[in-house]
Amino acid sequence: xxxxxxxxxxxxxLEALFTRAPAGLFVLDPDLRVIRFNAAARGMRGLTDDRVxxxxxxxxxxxxxxxxxxxxxxxxxxxxxxxxRHKVRAPGRTTTPH
Length: 98
Prior knowledge:
By secondary structure, the chain is mostly helical. The chain contains five helices and two strands. It has a two-stranded antiparallel sheet.
């Protein structure tokens, strides 16, 4: 397999994982504004593109702990890492262990 074929296959796999993930996923720019989100995230509280894209967490989900989410996002962006097995819920909702 050539490098370009492998790159295309990797990109297609990442796209499929993002779009079909059962968990809500958000992609943020360096200013912590949403540039993309998946179908599972859209299903959360009926989020729409015009309500979410280009906005910060505080702007589209004021009930969520924005400071915690912003800290996590900044850490990921600065270190080039990801966060796994960390679930954040709006106040009043319970978290079930996995």
